[in-house]
Amino acid sequence: MNAVVRPSAHRPRSPLRRLVAPFVKPQVFDFWASRLHPTWSWERPLARIEARESASADAVTLILKPNRHWRGFVAGQHLMIGARIDGATVSRSYSLCDAPRADGRIAITVKAIEGGRLSRHLHDRARVGDVLELGPAFGEMVLPERVDGAWLFLAAGSGITPLMAMLRALAQRGMPVPLTLLYWARQREELCFVDELRELAATHPNFELRLLLTRQAPQHPGEAGGRIDAESLAQHAPDWAQRRIYACGPGGFVATARELTAARAVGFAAEAFTPPPRSDDDTGTVEVELARSGRRLQLPRGQSLLSALEAQGLSLASGCRMGLCNTCACGKASGTTRHLHTGDVHSEPASALRLCVNAASSDLVLDL
What we know:
This protein is of the alpha/beta class. It has eight helices and 20 strands. It has three domains: about 120 residues, Elongation Factor Tu (Ef-tu), domain 3; about 120 residues, Nucleotide-binding domain of ferredoxin-NADP reductase (FNR) module (Rossmann fold), CATH 3.40.50; about 80 residues, Beta-grasp domain (Ubiquitin-like (UB roll)). Helices cover about 20% and strands about 30% of the residues. It comes from Lysobacter firmicutimachus.
């Protein structure tokens, strides 16, 4: 796969900013600048909500205008979004669902999640004019600068959002490669971007669309039923082994896609929003020593270390909770862990460990 050119993470300071920086506290500048314009800041990336658009029965697309401190993205990447809720900033990771635009605006699609503090705020209460905090774009499942061959996108639920950004980017290029999208949801009311997807399929002969419903009978052209399995792939993408495959969705969906296709496809890349279900082998507990604090904890196998440690009362830095942003990474001095998405086992000492997507397989010593 060709190398991907990513946006720069840093903007050189102007001579004036370098001159006044020793005398200006960014927090003080931000306080007074925001009185003049809501997204002015010393260096913090901020964005104003410019529009709200319904994406499905339970999802909304927010169109955001970032300030000049945000450094851009590549289609398929994510970013951290922060909002003030009840006096505190709550941050979560969201996929950018549009390709980079000439006007600099960006879009995220937010599904309302039961108990999701930020998702419910953005879906139910955020309004045009509200200002959100932005983190830098991250994520490696992106389109290369030059695409060739044939492609297959496998999406389930919210997993459509990064794939939609890549699809829109390909459409901007005139759909230069054959692309098939298989998109699963429980019910058709939960499918996002349906009208646009159908229009793209009608406009570009290279693009084929299949909408698959797991809890509803198909009724309309282009719909089918059933979950992801070897039969559905053979029916809807019979040449999948000759394609580059991108898969995104819940952990169980991605794990199935990986098991069915990764070994034989031309290429395979995936991101999972949640870990796959625990297997029967993920039983019992292990002892985890926290080297800096001296604590020793009994933690369950098969559960992400981040969740297990939080359940013990630890407050740890975290971001995407998908193994992408590295916010929760810490040092591991000894022990064996298993990656919850790939099943890979790692026992190297003195290595960095992403707590959100790894579970303990043996006793561990962590640099916490």
